[in-house]
Amino acid sequence: METALTRLTGVRHPVVQTGMGWVAGPRLVSATANAGALGILASATMTLDRLRAAVREVRARTDAPFGVNLRADAADAGDRVRILIEEGVRVASFALAPSRELIGELKDAGVVVMPTVGARRHAEKVAGWGADAVLVQGTEGGGHTGEVATTVLLPQVVDAVDIPVVAAGGFFDGRGLVAALAYGAAGVAMGTRFLLTSDSTVPEAVKARYLAATVRDVTVTRAVDGLPHRMLRTELVEALERSGRVRGALQAVRRAAGYRKLSGTSWRRMLQDGFALRHGKDLTWSQVLLAANTPMLLKASMVDGRTDLGVMASGQVAGVIDDLPSCAELVERIMKEAEDTRRRLTASR
């Protein structure tokens, strides 16, 4: 199925596996790439050396195109961009809008730039700065989210920009792919669906929690880092929502110190990232501390398997997923469902 996305990135199928922190590592990304979709490596929690090593590991596992997700507001974003250029990465994905300068540097090196946005005006801005494509996430998506549903946000963005639009938030099968294409998208991006594959390194006990979840078990809370964050509702999430500011801030400082040690990030750089995070948002400094705490809460579940100590970012689609296929099986299934759906729609005319 050829679309503007497949032509732009060189992949066989218009499906993107999103850059989920602690989840989208070399094994999942390379499995996705080998299945013909676009795998995105999550780099925000990696040191610069680890990022370069992870890119090379993916390259050793696959000859197919893949991408890397970056934090546009990170103090070392420029250093990370240069690693992508030096290592010949095909696609640079951003969780926030990158600067005009970063976009220009990547494009000059032949790297496809695809920021993630949650509003039409943000899509218009990055398109005006030269982004090659834009990934649009509706409120159904996991992790940090907005308030507009994909079915409302997607057509707004498609009508507003002249670059390929990738739809995210609420997609898990071939029917969703056809629906997104009907809206004018060039493909779909999926996070939770790829997390729940046999190629994902997330501990099996954590996957079991996702598979057991219903749509009512997925919630949006501000208790983790002060921003709307979609995740599975657990005892820890409920405890965070009940905890007071002082207790929450003390816990955040302790976990932020752990993240600093793990990632090799200096306190100065963490403060710089905190300033960037706070900019343009109505966040208290306690909430900024909670934001620094978030990577450790995610790691506790996604890496260590401690669902009692960590949080589990999740799209609403977790409530309708009930199996763990390989990436190859998943992508093949999605494409077959999409073709069957298109034939059925054509036959019903």
Automatic annotation (TrEMBL):
Pfam families: NMO (PF03060). It comes from Streptomyces swartbergensis. It comes from the Bacteria. InterPro entries: Aldolase_TIM, NMO. This is 2-nitropropane dioxygenase. GO terms for molecular function: dioxygenase activity; nitronate monooxygenase activity. Keywords: Dioxygenase, Flavoprotein, FMN, Oxidoreductase. The keyword Flavoprotein applies.
